[in-house]
Amino acid sequence: MQIEIAEFGKMSQSGSSLLKLIQNNDLPILDLLVREAVQNSLDAGIRVEGLNSVYVDIGIRDVNVQNFAKHLDGVTDSLNEKFGASPQKAIYIEDANTTGLTGSLDFKNSPNGNIFKLIYGISMAQDTPGAGGSWGLGKTVYFRVGIGLVVYYSRILNEDGQFEHRLAVTLVENEKLPNPLIPKSAGKVPSGIAWWGKSLAPDSNDTIPITNEPMIHDILQSLSIEPFEGERLGTKIIIPFIDEQQLLIKHDISPDEKKPWESNAVDYLRIAMQRWYAPRLANNKYTYGKYLDGHINGMRLDKDDFSPLFLELQLMYNAAVLGGESNRYFVNDIQIRNYFENNKVNNAGRVAYKKFTKKQLDMLAPLNGPSPFTCVNEKNPMGEQNAPLMTYARRPGMIVNYETNGEWCKGISATEGHEFLVAIFVPNSNTKLLNPDNDVVDLEAYLRKSEMADHTSWSDIIIKSKPFDIVEKIRSQIRRKIKASYENKEEVKEKQGMNTLARNVGKLLLPPTGFGRRASSRNRAGGTKLSTNKGSGGGNSFTLVSQKYLDTGDLEVHFQMKLAKNVTAFTIELFISSEGGKISATDWESVDSVGTPFPAQITGISFPGKIGLFGRSTALKSDNKVLHAVRIEKTDKAVECTCILAFTCTDPHVQVEMSMKPEGSVENA
């Protein structure tokens, strides 16, 4: 292919300036690549009809240096000398169910064609409704992944309705380096930018993409890439001569946690695609267009492959978009007044959030999965406690950023070490502004315009010389909603302190009214003193000793238990407290009642050091297989022992009660 070296002139870009154009030092290069490449592919699929997904595959391939280099006039020898003696790798991005690189091969005839915008243009505005950003700025990340060399291959339906293969190569390098690849021309200032293709005309130095299929197939074969066949349309971007270890940045988020994806580029790409596209990846409930059919090295990323955090984020995103009641998360409307045409309660969008335990996030043995902070490459600024983890995404379904402090989290209390508060905000993109600008007519456009070129944050902007504070109002309301859901209740609990917890648990464990001696008058009115209660028929009693929360989020209760000789068995059962009395598991799950699985479950019961005093135990499960009670047989001896009971509750809005029913010496207690 013929080389075309860009001339350095007035208002023109140089290679060194392009490489700095989107110099994001906060995100690893592979994260930037995934964010940009997947978004470009999703945008390219918007106008394709009859399909409900966009196929995207990112992976690693081998490079045959000599077979590849022979096609690039002017740099063949340099590439062979520099890379021919050792094995070389390339990273590729493939999309299908997309339009491909359409437009005239000569950009002068089609300056708005996709082929010009991606290969030859820079800073081109993206005018497709629902698209993620603008052409040209984000794509510069391609030049930073390897040595600056990028191969663009596409198969399209041309204007004649015929399939057409197209391929071009671009090189962007720092022209100030001592040994650049691009040949220097006498009397000309080096630009650091070059293209390869076929000559536009016999006497012209301008090039256009090649369409010669045998040559294209040969180039692709040298990069271990298959050409598109059959009815398949799309684009493949190949970046050869990568240094895999330089691309793998080691994050010291938590030294004790394993991060297996940081030892292999393919594994890193797999977690990065989930990290940034969890709302849209394999999500057939995505409502803003086609969902992302993501692949890594040719293998589909299904929900079964997701890390628990990213699967929860997708479910939370769906809950926020669809609205309505959620049994799994808190979902709150966010309303902003005086900026939008309507004052609907969700005119700005919705936030979904929940506190997750380590068990729910697969962090306990034997899985020992990473924490949410490790999954998103963010340090926990709160030490032994956990900072809130906030995120947000607009219509394209790409996570904009993960926040653990700053304006999104300000004033939200940290959680204890066994819990993680995770929240996601989804804007109501179609909400129209009261006083729109030509380019900013709705909330989606407002947020899109507020993003930087690398789409890593939202900030408020000025429209028609008037500063807006929509983003700040959204953040403020989200903080208020979360605090109202959790922290008001927790403040009351803190004021009541440990004595209140001891009183409640003790009341639940003690035999009910009518069993044992009457309490003294000073303790009948809700006092917190806990004492041993001896039964009238042989000294049956319970005495609370202690209680604590485990790392799993379960509540573990220790209590002393005395049972008379002729008690033959006893049952410990969980109930849900209500104004009308206790609700059993059977009643709760009834179709005439709540109709959902019973939200409390026994996770463990033991009697340390009392082997031989108890007989067979029977687990009592509800219709939904929830372990809500345990019946335990006892020998014909009096028993005095310590009992340890652990239970979990999946619904933060209910209060759990426990009761004990002895069999033998007394009536049901």
Can you walk through the features of this model?
With 669 residues, this protein is an alpha+beta fold. It has 3 domains: 2-247, Heat Shock Protein 90; 307-488; 510-663, Sandwich (Immunoglobulin-like), CATH 2.60.40. Helices cover 22% and strands 27% of the residues. The protein is built from 14 helices and 26 strands. The chain has helices at residues 15-20, 29-44, 65-69, 76-83, 114-120, 142-145, 213-222, 244-247, 265-277, 308-322, 372-375, 443-450, 470-509, 585-589; strands at 2-5, 53-63, 88-96, 149-157, 163-172, 193-199, 207-208, 234-242, 291-296, 299-300, 330-334, 349-357, 389-393, 399-403, 419-427, 462-463, 466-467, 541-549, 555-563, 569-578, 581-583, 600-606, 614-621, 627-634, 639-649, 656-663. Strands 1, 2, 3, 4, 5, 6, 7, 8, 9 and 10 form a 10-stranded mixed beta sheet that branches. Helix 2 crosses helix 9 (265-277). The radius of gyration is 32 Å and the shape is elongated. The chain starts with a strand and ends in a 6-residue tail after the last strand. Residues 490-537 have low confidence and may be disordered.
